[in-house]
Amino acid sequence: MPDQKPIELYYWPTPNGWKVSIALEEMALPYVLKPVNIGAGEQFEPGFLAISPNGRMPAIIDPDGPDGEPISVFESGAILQYLARKSGRFHGSNAREQAAVEQWLFWQMGGLGPMAGQAHHFRSYAPKIEPDLSKLEYGKTRYTNEVNRLYGVLERGLSDGRDFIAGPYSIADMAIWPWILPEGQGQNLDDFPKLKAWVDRVWERPGVQAGRKLGKDLRSNLGADDKKAEEARKILFGQRAT
Ligand SMILES: N[C@@H](CCC(=O)N[C@@H](CS)C(=O)NCC(=O)O)C(=O)O
């Protein structure tokens, strides 16, 4: 479709961003990258908040929305569902398959993503902010254990011989895969052989590799000791309503 207008992808290279860059690559939808430097506070700019009122990336603007008018979408799960409907791919081909995809998609959105995010926070970033490490111990243990439990859920989910989490490869795999980062989450994939094989199987896909690499040079290491990382931590952690 040569005259298809590109989707604007508001993005920073993090696990939630990778979900959507992977989906766009897998679905071969044309897109244009609009970096949102969350370490520099660009997520609070009024223009961005108008399309993503939660002040989080990713978000998209599709100039060719469902009624031919532009549409914006925020929340990675909603974006994945929108793109799957638009492309007609990767969300199951009947009601039963769609329910299977959606249960794992929502499991990622409500479980693995938030819990793994907190595990990263307590393990890597909080020690740079709170000098009394004993205060971090409870949170660190709680979220590391919860991620361990969730890895176990995936391991059992993949134990019936299926190649992908909902059967055929789907947006559920695209949502879950970027969040399997065992090193930063205090996990060992050798304890989860089916999950480990799935991680490798998903990575073999060229669309996943292209999406995962998008903007990789933009990202700074939030756990680093330099001035830029310290500034980014101040922007990202401790936000309140006003
Ligand atoms: N539930 C949201 C989470 C998005 C999210 O947390 N994005 C992070 C980066 S991974 C962000 O934009 N952070 C900016 C901030 O914390 O100010 C989704 O799935 O899209």
Q: How does this structure look, described?
A:
The chain has 242 residues and is α+β, with helices and mostly antiparallel strands. It is built from nine helices and four strands. The protein has helices spanning 15-26, 46-49, 76-87, 95-125, 137-157, 171-176, 193-203, 206-213, 227-236, and strands at 7-11, 31-35, 59-62, 71-74. Helix 1 (15-26) links the parallel strand 1 (7-11) and strand 2. Helix 4 runs antiparallel to helix 5. It is globular and about 55 Å long. The model has no long low-confidence stretch (mean pLDDT 96). The site of glutathione has 12 residues, from helix 1.
Shape category: globular
Let me know the largest β-sheet: 4 strands, mixed
Segments where pLDDT lies below 50 for 5+ residues?
A: none
Q: What value does the Rg take, in angstroms?
A: 18 Å
User: What's the assembly state of these chains?
Assistant: single chain
How are the SSEs placed, and which strands pair?
Layout: E1 7-11, H1 15-26, E2 31-35, H2 46-49, E3 59-62, E4 71-74, H3 76-87, H4 95-125, H5 137-157, H6 171-176, H7 193-203, H8 206-213, H9 227-236
Parallel strand pairs: 1-2
Antiparallel strand pairs: 1-3, 3-4
Helix pairs in contact: 1-3, 1-8, 4-5
The structure holds glutathione.
The site of glutathione has 12 residues, from helix 1.
Domain GST C-terminal: 94-222
Protein name: Glutathione S-transferase family protein
Domain GST N-terminal: 4-91
